[in-house]
Amino acid sequence: MKIIDEREKNLDDKAYRNIQELENYAENTQSSLLYLTLEILGVKDLHADHAASHIGKAQGIVTCLRATPYHGSRRRVFLPMDICMLHGVSQEDFLRKNQDKNVRDVIYDIASQAHLHLKHARSFHKSVPMKAFPAFLQTVALENYLKRIQQVDFDIFHPSLQQKDTLLPLSLYIQSWRKRY
């Protein structure tokens, strides 16, 4: 019900006022899906739930970043307004695919928040039961995107970010074999 309620609140297509709103949305949608996955796997562990919360928040933030070029092409921007205002960036800058330093700084700040959640989730690695690891393998794709966006100097509109990473399945296999998320 949390997922449905949160999606209903988000039907008006407004930008998030701040990063906390984006994180709350991610917690109530992405993290809720992870909690369900853990339940299906038979994992009832406080550390796993805490890790799922942070992974869900990171997933929500990264999804918002990844969708920015698509939404921009539809004349919509969902990035947190407080971070945009902090750097003096307007929604119009994203609609025009502006690549100024200020726009990249906004993306850097948002991506950094996702990275912090990912790092925090991984700090529970030793405390999380092994049965929960398959649910958390999505962190491989999240980290991959965050590294790729860093390589293009946080230019959210760089064409390479819209292409598939052909090595992602191999990275997933290696992380699952190593029993790491």
TrEMBL record:
Chief location of this protein within or outside the cell: mitochondrion
Protein name: NADH dehydrogenase (Ubiquinone) complex I, assembly factor 6 isoform X5
Compartments where found: Mitochondrion inner membrane
UniProt-listed Gene3D superfamilies: Farnesyl Diphosphate Synthase (1.10.600.10)
Organism: Vulpes vulpes
Family (UniProt): Belongs to the NDUFAF6 family.
Entry keywords, A to Z: Membrane, Mitochondrion, Mitochondrion inner membrane, Transit peptide
